[in-house]
Design a protein that fits this description.
Shape of chain A: elongated
Structural class of chain B: mainly alpha
Structural class of chain A: alpha+beta
Oligomer: heterodimer
Strand content of chain B: under 5%
Strand content of chain A: 15-25%
Low-confidence stretches of chain B: none
Order of helices and strands of chain B: HHHHHHHHHHHHHHHH
CATH topology of the largest domain in chain A: Molybdopterin biosynthesis moea protein, domain 2
CATH superfamily of chain B: Hypothetical protein af1432
Number of domains of chain A: 2
Mean pLDDT of chain A: 88
CATH superfamily of the largest domain in chain A: Molybdopterin biosynthesis moea protein, domain 2
Distance between the termini of chain B: 33 Å
Number of domains of chain B: 1
Radius of gyration of chain B: 18 Å
Helix content of chain B: 55-70%
CATH topology of chain B: Hypothetical protein af1432
CATH architecture of the largest domain in chain A: Alpha-Beta Complex
CATH class of the largest domain in chain A: Alpha Beta
Low-confidence stretches of chain A: none
Number of helices of chain A: 3
Largest sheet of chain A: 2 strands, antiparallel
Chain lengths: 103, 280
């Protein structure tokens, strides 16, 4: 599973919210992460001026592999001078694990 | 500018840094005082509407849970507490006072994203370690103030450092030593003394790349926070890299990997709120 940000116009009933939806100026949580969108909630979000949402998306194996590769590619750049430094190698491993879990 | 060595020239320029706004000076001083009149400071902050707007944007974020109910500085202090508000005031004050320069190679937005991110990392780590999170946030926020001082006072040298770092794939620190003969940690220390930052924050700024036993908790936590911030790709340029992590600082703080794993989502959550400080 992955997350993606979509415009409200592209949101459909049945989609699951990946992160809390707050009012346009911050503040109140209008819809909590994990909630499933319905026609009623979509209308309510539109009335509150929400323009985009982060939703859970089901990734195909190919998409998942591409996301994993992108994570590794960025970490390769960030840690390109880490060499065999034990702390940095472990830090990279921990952050990679965290990024992959969020997919 | 005088005709001394590059290092003497930079230090002479930094010695001419303008004073910080009265509100920021008072808020910074309050970290070392017990007899603080929060209402009086709120009045001073309220004179700068641009600063107030930035502070309230964060104060009204979901992170603090007051959902758009914070309308004034006085309300912010009552609802969030003066202790929690002052780090936001320092951030807003500095962002306001030193706006971006046109055609600069210094990426103002990334600079603040990294420093706010490091502040958040420091606050989360300090909280887990049972220490003062807001002081740690402020120290993290200010840790690279030497870079800002060079950008403000010696813009041509700031551009030369950025160009050198990009063309030679060096760390910023290495580029600064090559071009300026001194790095941003030492320059920041001079700026911090000039601006009368609390002593613990001065030391955190001076030693954030290589904290020693005598540097203190804040230097250690800001060091780790800055490395974490780079690792999480907060405020990085495309060519940035993760700097070395001091095993001594790690050990002195008593950190362990399970704690870091626990902190990562919290850092990203808090950083989303704190970043509302940026933007017009």
């Amino acid at each position: 599973m992955g997350h993606k940000i979509i415009s409200l116009a592209d949101a459909r009933p049945g989609m699951r919210i990946a992160s809390d939806v707050c009012g346009p100026k911050g503040g109140d949580v209008l819809l909590a992460a994990g909630a499933v969108l319905s026609g009623v909630t979509l209308s309510a979000l539109a009335r509150r001026g929400i323009s985009q949402l982060e939703v859970v998306e089901a990734l195909s194996p190919a998409e998942l592999a591409a996301r994993n590769a992108a994570i590794d590619q960025r970490l390769d750049v960030l840690f390109r001078h880490a060499g065999n430094d034990l702390l940095l190698c472990k830090l990279r491993e921990v952050v990679r694990e965290y990024r992959v879990e969020k997919l | 500018m005088n005709n001394g060595s590059p290092m003497e020239q930079v230090l002479a320029c930094v010695g001419q840094l303008p004073p910080l706004s009265a509100a920021v000076v008072e808020v910074l001083a309050s970290f070392e005082r017990k007899d603080v009149d929060a209402d009086e400071i709120a009045d001073k902050i309220s004179l700068d509407q641009g600063m107030v707007t930035r502070v309230l944007r964060v104060a009204n974020s979901a992170f603090y849970g007051f959902s758009g109910k914070v309308g004034t500085m006085h309300e912010a202090i009552v609802l969030l507490g003066f202790h929690n508000i002052r780090s936001l005031v320092v951030a807003a004050g500095l962002i306001r006072q030193f706006p971006p320069r046109e055609h600069s190679q210094f990426d103002h937005s990334l600079f603040w994203r990294h420093n706010i991110g490091a502040g958040v990392c420091a606050r989360v780590l300090a909280g887990r370690l049972g220490k003062d999170g807001e002081l740690a946030f402020t120290a993290g926020l200010l840790h690279d103030v030497g870079r800002l001082a060079v950008e403000v006072m010696c813009p041509e040298k700031s551009d030369a450092v950025a160009a050198h770092s990009a063309s030679h794939d060096t760390t910023l620190l290495e580029a600064e030593c090559a071009i300026l003969g001194i790095d941003h940690a030492a320059i920041g220390f001079e700026a911090a003394k000039r601006w009368n930052f609390p002593v613990a924050i001065q030391l955190a700024i001076r030693d954030h790349h290589q904290p020693g036993q005598e540097s203190g908790f804040l230097a250690d936590v800001v060091h780790v926070a800055s490395v974490l911030c780079h690792t999480l790709d907060i405020g990085n340029t495309v060519n940035d890299r993760v700097p070395p992590l001091s095993p001594d600082a790690w050990q002195r703080l008593g950190l362990h990997w399970e704690m870091i794993k626990y902190c990562l989502p919290e850092i990203e959550r808090q950083n989303a709120a704190a970043s509302l400080m940026l933007g017009d």
